[in-house]
Amino acid sequence: MLAFVLKRLLYGLISLIGITFLVFSLLYLTGDPVQLMMPPDATVQEVEDARVRLGFDQPFLVQYFNFVGKLARFDLGDSLIRRVPVSELIKEYFPNTLLLATTAYLFALLVAVPAGVFAAIKRNSVFDLLISMVVLIGQAAPAYWVALMFVLFFSVQLGWFPTGGMGTFRHLVGPALSVGIFSMSRIARMARSSMLDVLRQDYIRTAKSQGISDRLIYFKFALKSAAIPIITLVGVEYAVLFGGSLIAETIFSWPGIGRLIVQSVYARDYPVVQGVVMLFACTVFLVNLIVDLLYSYLDPRIKYGKVPS
Amino acid sequence: MATETLLEIKNLSTYFDTKDGVLKAVNDVSFNIDRGEILGIIGESSAGKTVIASSIMRLIPYPGKIINGEIMFKNENILKKSSSEMSKIRGNEIAMIFQDPMSCLNPVFTIGDQITSGIQAHKKITKKEGYLAAVKALEEVQISAPENRVNGYQHELSGGMKQRVMIALALINQPELIIADNPTTALDSTIQLQFLNLILNLRKEHNTTILYITHDFGVIAKLCDRVAVLYAGEIVEIGTVFDVLTKPKHPYTIGLINSSLSPGMERKGIKAIRGKTPDMTKLKTGCKFAERCDQKFDDCVKQNINMLETGHSDKSHKARCLLHRS
Amino acid sequence: MTANTTVTFDSFSSSTVFRTLKKISRNLKGIIGGSILVIILLLALFAPFFSPHDPYEQNLEKRLIPPSWVEGGSKNHFLGTDQLGRDLLSRIIYGSRISVIVGLSAVFIAGFIGVTLGLLAGYYQGAFGAVIMRIVDIFLSIPYILFAIAVIAAIGSGLNKLILVLALTRWAHYARITNGKVLQIKTEEYIEGAHSRGNSSWRVMTRHILPNAIPPILVLASLELAFMIIMEATLSFLGIGVSPPTATWGLMSSEGRDYLTIAWWITTFSGLAIVITVLGANLFGDWLRDNLDPRLKGV
Question: In this model, does residue C76 exceed pLDDT 50?
Answer without folding.
Answer: yes
